[in-house]
Amino acid sequence: MAEGNEDLPRDAKIVKTLLKSMGVEDYEPRVVHQFLELWYRYVVDVLTDAQVYSEHAGKAAIDCDDVKLAIQSKVNFSFSQPPPREVLLELARSRNKIPLPKSIAGPGIPLPPEQDTLISPNYQLAIPKKKSGQAVEETEEDEEAVDPNPNPSQEQKTEMPQNTNPHRVSFPLGAKRPR
Questions:
Q1: Does an H or E element contain 65, and which?
Q2: pLDDT tens for the 179 residues of the chain, in order
Q3: Measuring CA to CA, which residue among 42, 62, 44 is closest to residue 52?
Q4: Among 35, 91, 112, 128, fewest CB within 10 Å belongs to which?
Q5: CB-CB contact of 136 with 159 (8 Å)
Q6: How far apart are CA 131 and CA 39, in angstroms?
């Protein structure tokens, strides 16, 4: 990036020299412009603050003490120092005196309740109650005499005996399974 140094402004040459002194050899040309923008903005902020301090003190012009005060306030406002190591150790000791709460869940990853998960079943099978044998036969004869059901799956629903296992469905003898 050393090409064209003779037509660069003095500040840009200074930025390039600073980058080179820090061991930065390869960079894009706009990096110099970004540093210059940051540099100019910082100087304007410091001088504006120095002017405010000078006016507050009743001075006619900005002097070296106003600039130092502006720089110090800028540094204090922009950068904060971490607390001393002793303070951090004391805070850690006081915090570590409090034991962690006991874990309610067992080992492994705690999961939400089953009703809140997406893998829980969201349906229930409606299994008709078991009727006495004679009542079932009368019901079948009445249905066939009055209105023969063109849909055989409806007949199967009324003829299903109650199961003790909700995951297993049994069909009466001679009935066809729905497909």
A1: helix 64-78
A2: 445 567 888 999 999 999 999 999 899 989 999 999 999 999 999 999 999 999 999 999 999 999 999 999 988 887 778 889 999 999 999 999 998 877 676 777 877 777 777 776 667 777 878 766 555 555 555 555 555 545 554 444 445 455 455 556 555 665 565 65
A3: 62
A4: 112
A5: yes
A6: 92
Residue with tokens 């001679």: 174
**Superfamily name and number for 10-97:** Histone, subunit A (1.10.20.10)
Q: How many Å apart are CA 51 and CA 67, to the nearest integer?
A: 8
Q: What is the dihedral of CA 36, 40, 45, 46, to 10 degrees?
A: 100
Instruction: Return the structure tokens found at 172.
Output: 């009466």
Task: Report how far apart, in Å, the C-alpha atoms of 80 and of each of 39, 45, 47, 116 are.
Answer: 20, 19, 22, 46
